[in-house]
Specification:
The complex is a heterodimer. Chain A is of the alpha/beta class. Chain A has 18 helices and ten strands. Chain A has a six-stranded mixed sheet with strand order 2-1-3-9-4-10, with helices on both faces. A four-stranded mixed sheet of chain A has the order 6-7-5-8. In chain A, helix 2 links the parallel strand 1 (53-60) and strand 2. Chain A is globular, with a radius of gyration of 26 Å. Chain B folds into two domains: 36-88, no CATH class; 100-334, Orthogonal Bundle (MetI-like fold), CATH 1.10.3720. Classes of the chains: A alpha/beta, B mainly alpha. Chain A: Pfam families: SBP_bac_8. Chain A: Keywords: Signal.
């Protein structure tokens, strides 16, 4: 009997082991299934079950295609297509994953969005992983702003992605604070205060400071000011041949000096953009002006108390610049290259981008859209009846063609967070510059 | 499964005496038994390896391979954007570390943050454990509460601390203002930022160490305290002369674990200033080695440099480990005599 019970115990143990093993295997199989259903490109053609083709989009943030009803519209036009988007909230998380997928050629969606800050690096290092969408059927190069088209095009003329929106900058200002400080509040007059020259921002700031409500600053941050100046220059950190010139380009040092002077004179808040302290200062109405691309209005609304709605207005920046904007590309690894190309081509047509503007406020990268009613009639809660469609599209036309390099973001962050920001902490402009350039050189050194 | 039903235990070596054999088994039966016996022996011999293999396979894939690959990558110039495109540079990534101000700055910060977080942390843990060791009502409740910070995610904790340490609207500066002290710029000055980062570490780990101490304290025989009390020792004297010596091995353990933890500090400083992130503040004032490694590898995408930093950190850790080992051996032998 004892022998018998030993046998049965063995059986039980074995059964347990086998079922555990089977469970593990089943677990793996489940994962596989999950992947397949989560990544429709893997289940080629079978996505909808009715012979439909599912096109997947990899996006970051809120691009607004869905919110503007563009997917539904496209699916109605093309019943055989089903669209599925896969959104990662922040580009900081989206971009490294995209790079990983591109270098390993796995896990890619049929359409991948690329942020303007990363486009140069993608063009320089990953161009062979994308189809030349510039040659896709129905793509008209002249639709796009020249510089936007150039940004996603390689030296030998291959366009790897089509632009959706651009970030033309104006200056958003609080009408109530400007009035309290004795500055004009009409947007034409405000634009005149600094027209053509960023240095004038300092003198306007000094005027503001002399009569300003206590505890408020003229502008939001030294880094924001520096970035907007650089966004409006013909050249920033790289020259046309892709050489790093940030130290030798006099425009960089000039912008650094202007932002540094503003910091020394206490005209800008001693905070960094998109940090908690900055967010809190929006909620508490601590600054009177901020450089703003249209998407900034959405951000201001998010962080403001309800009573701030309608108190803002938008003036033209001293010189128009660009801040933000997205591209859509089709990786060669896509299982439905043709269909994906067709979708991207349709999504980036002026008519669609205008609809996007109406919902999302993102300015189309195709000037043909600027005369469409959705854009010309564009308004925003924060700025009341200001015709932001007209203001921002006018700025968009004046944005300079600016070569951007693969490490623009690293240089920019070094300049602001490790540089001009330190001036607000009592460093001299030269000390801040030295700290910034040392940091940047170390970060660029391979 | 069916085949295993027939796998009878071998007659010899089994716990049960074999069934009385009714005469000689047939030849077929003998062959069958021999086969089963061979299978049994193979089972005995190889099964244990199969059972331990999952750990080692995982270790090979996720431990050893990355270690070797990082070592290989550290000898090359290689970027995260093209990890297969390697250019041999020999030891250049290592030699440049010697005059890399940022590396040594990070090393110094790691050391100072390590000291100002570990020392108070362990002292406080000892004190808390001593208090919890008294007879308390609802002692389980206090123990759970003490461990709660350890269970919080670093991200959540850091977020709250960032708000507390805020310059303009932070609660700590508000409190300082109430008592008439000026506001402290917690994020941007060297010492204040390091203290703030250490606070997050201390908050998270004190309870964890306190519980370890508490467990060790409860293993100290009560007779020792009783006889000490009979001899007229006060509570404090009991703590110094009975508790502390008995805790020595435990304290050594926590010191070693905390030192290793401190040399790898990463999450707290990374999240302390979400915007400057990996650069550890505008002047790298609280950039630790972990952060510097992350900055080189994942922000600047210099995989080769990051690998070299990782290996250098690894070597430093080994040195620290050896020093710890030597010290603890000294202490143990002195306590043994």
């Amino acid at each position: 009997m004892r022998a018998r019970s030993r046998t049965s115990r063995r059986v039980v143990v074995l059964a347990a082991a086998v079922s555990l093993g089977a469970g593990l295997l089943a677990g793996c199989a489940d994962d596989g299934d999950d992947n397949a259903s989560g990544d429709p490109s893997a289940s080629s053609g079978g996505g909808g079950g009715k012979g439909q083709t599912t096109i997947s989009l990899g996006l970051f943030g809120t691009q607004g295609f869905k919110q503007a009803g563009l997917y539904t519209e496209y699916e109605k036009l093309h019943p055989e297509i089903k669209i599925q988007e896969n959104v990662v909230e922040r580009n900081e998380n989206y971009y490294p994953a995209l790079l990983n997928h591109l270098t390993t050629n796995a896990g890619l969606m049929d359409v991948q969005a690329i942020e303007v800050g990363n486009i140069a690096e993608i063009v320089a290092t990953q161009a062979d992983k994308f189809v030349d969408i510039g040659k896709a059927e129905g793509v008209v190069k002249s639709n796009w702003l020249d510089w936007k088209w150039a940004q996603s095009t390689t030296k030998d003329g291959k366009t790897i992605a089509l632009g959706t929106d651009v970030g033309p900058t104006g200056i958003c200002y609080r009408k109530d604070l400007f009035q309290a400080a004795g500055l004009p509040t009409d947007r034409e007059q405000v634009s005149q205060l600094w027209a053509g020259d960023w240095k004038k921002v300092i003198s306007v700031g000094e005027r503001y400071k002399s009569k300003a409500p206590s505890g408020t600053y003229f502008m939001d941050s030294p880094g924001g000011l520096f970035n907007s100046i650089m966004g409006s220059e013909e050249q920033k950190y790289y020259d046309k041949d892709g050489e790093v010139i940030y130290k030798s380009n006099p425009k960089v040092r000039a912008a650094f000096d202007i932002a540094g002077e503003a910091a020394q004179k206490g005209l800008v808040q001693p905070v960094t953009q998109f940090q908690t302290g900055w967010d809190q200062s929006i909620a508490n109405n601590k600054f009177a002006a901020v450089t703003c691309p249209p998407w900034m209005l959405g951000y201001l609304k998010d962080k403001s108390k309800p009573e701030a709605v309608g108190k803002w207005d938008v003036a033209q920046a001293p010189k128009a610049g660009n801040w933000g904007g997205t591209f859509l590309g089709v990786p060669k690894a896509s299982k439905h290259v043709k269909e994906a190309e067709a979708l991207v081509t349709w999504l980036t047509q002026p008519a669609q981008l205008a609809k996007l503007f109406a919902v999302q406020g993102s300015v189309p990268s195709t000037p043909a859209a600027y005369t469409l009613p959705q854009v010309t009639a564009g308004k925003n809660d924060m700025t009341g009846d200001a015709p932001i469609g007209q203001i921002f599209t006018q700025a968009a036309k004046n944005i300079p063609v600016q070569p951007i390099g693969p490490k623009d973001q690293i240089i920019q962050q070094g300049m602001t967070d490790n540089g001009v920001f330190l001036v607000t902490k009592g460093k001299s402009i030269q000390e801040a510059w030295d700290n910034a350039t040392k940091t940047i050189d170390n970060n660029l050194d391979k | 499964m069916a085949s295993h039903d027939t796998a009878a235990p071998p007659s010899k070596g089994g716990a049960a005496p074999g069934r009385p054999a009714p005469g000689q088994p047939s030849e077929a039966e003998q062959r069958r038994r021999a086969r089963l016996s061979r299978r049994w022996q193979r089972d005995i011999k190889w099964s244990p390896y199969a059972f331990v293999s999952p750990f080692f396979l995982l270790f090979l894939a996720f431990g050893l391979f990355p270690l070797v690959y990082t070592g290989w990558a550290s000898l090359h110039q290689v970027e995260l954007t093209a990890p297969t495109d390697m250019k041999w540079v020999g030891l250049r990534n290592y030699t440049r570390i010697f005059d890399d101000d940022f590396f040594w700055n990070a090393a110094k910060n790691t050391l100072t943050i390590g000291i100002i977080s570990t020392v108070p942390q362990l002292l406080m843990a000892l004190g808390i454990a001593h208090i919890l060791n008294y007879r308390l009502r609802a002692s389980t409740f206090y123990r759970v509460v003490i461990l709660a910070p350890y269970a919080t995610s670093i991200a959540a904790a850091a977020l709250v601390f960032v708000l507390l340490f805020g310059h303009d609207y932070g609660m700590i500066n508000w409190g300082l203002d109430l008592v008439g002290l000026g506001p402290v710029d917690w994020q941007n000055d060297k010492w204040s930022s390091q203290i703030a980062v250490s606070t997050i570490i201390i908050w998270r780990w004190t309870g964890y160490n306190a519980l370890i101490y508490l467990a060790a304290m409860q293993a100290i025989p009560n007779d020792l305290y009783e006889s000490a009390a009979l001899d007229g020792a006060s509570r404090w004297q009991q703590f110094i002369h009975v508790t502390l010596p008995s805790l020595r091995p435990t304290i050594l353990f926590t010191v070693v674990v905390s030192t290793i933890g401190a040399s790898q500090v990463f999450g707290e400083p990374l999240l302390f200033d979400p915007n400057t992130g990996a650069s550890g503040g505008g002047e790298h004032q609280y950039q630790t080695l972990g952060l510097y490694l992350y900055e080189q590898g994942w922000v600047n995408q210099h995989l080769g440099r990051a690998s070299a930093i990782a290996w250098t950190m690894f070597l430093i850790l080994i040195v620290i480990g050896i020093v710890n080992y030597v010290i603890s051996r000294r202490l143990r032998s002195s306590s043994g005599s």
